[in-house]
Amino acid sequence: MKFEKSERQRSTKAKFVYSNMRITFVLMLACFAAWGVAANMTDPLVKVFSKIFTMSTFQAALVQSCYYGAYFCLALPAAFISKRYSYKVGVLTGLGLATIGAFAFYPASLMMTYGFFLAALFILAAGLSILETSANPFVMSMGPEKSATRRLNLAQAFNPLGTNLGVLLAATLILPNLNPATAAQRAAMSPDALSAVRAAELKAVMTPYVGMAFALLIIWVAIALIKVPRSNEPKVQDAPNTNFRSTLRRLLANRHYSWGVVAQFFNVAAQTCVWTFTIQYVQEAIGGSEANAGQYLQYSLLVFLASRFVMTWVMGFVRPTILLTALAFLGNILCVYAILSPDISGVWAVVSISACLSLMFPTIYGVALYGLGEDTKFGAAGLVMAILGGAVMPLVQGALMDAFGAAFSYITPAICFLIVAGYGLFNLRTVRAVRM
Any idea where this protein resides (predicted)? Predict the structure, then answer.
């Protein structure tokens, strides 16, 4: 009788743990969607702020430098949080800080200064950096290691749901509310008239971010209330392995990981460059307003969304690194075509690039982290720090755009794709413990 009772208790406990894990996974999907909203609602801000504050494309691109620079700065502290406590604590810390940053857009809209918006954006992105550093390996730990890359691709497939919503919010709440006055017309306005125009435009920028803050707060409460088992998280085995220097040496010695960080840098750079300057490319190629050009950015994100699910399915039959290599080369070809044909066909080439981007981030992430064991949490931080590519390369592309035009500037993501393809070839030519 005691044995049967013990078995029933273990069975009940296992069902409870499994149920909680499923609920936690669903909440993680909401987190993946949430940072997609933030990232792609931010992309049009380069165009928006260049118009509101009458600045060059290079100056406005500081939006992306601020956003992705925060990812670089906070990824390592996030790893220490996860290492010392748990993935759940890291997720909650990130969500909390991101909520504060999103709410900060309200006072920024009242101050009406570019610097205040950059500060609010930095706080938001800092929180999302901690969230992403914790959430990606958390999802990978929710099952067998051999299927971790595919499981992460499934979770990342919900990120485009957020990215599409982010672009939709920008296209419906921000871009249509921009005053059509040109830079010359704004310069001719009286200070009071110009201030009134800017106040209306910045209020439109603020509204979706404050709405997102409430959504992040709801997710925070839901995750805080659920009990999450830690059994699958990597554990420290002995004291020497907790030394950060020794961990760093092991990570740098692992070529699949260290070159994975480089590939992730240029993957995020390509993604950010393509989406940030889609509106400018469309306007240069076929004309039209910001709102009309923004529709093509929406099409890009829809392609990204559909491709993420399709590639997750295809990955069940084709080795992920083969797909990564092939799509990186295709992305390069599409960029070159967009440079040579700045017309409607070039516009659709830019839109199609999103299909190539769809599987890159989670695939590089999963391949690079495979087999790291107790170094996984710091390894994850390095891969998130590689998002710095999204801060650096848009400045390069922005400078090229100011000097040579939108079409030629797409040489920047073209080069980035070649480097990602190189990482894919490197993995195909080397032997791994499993066929990743």
Answer: Cell inner membrane
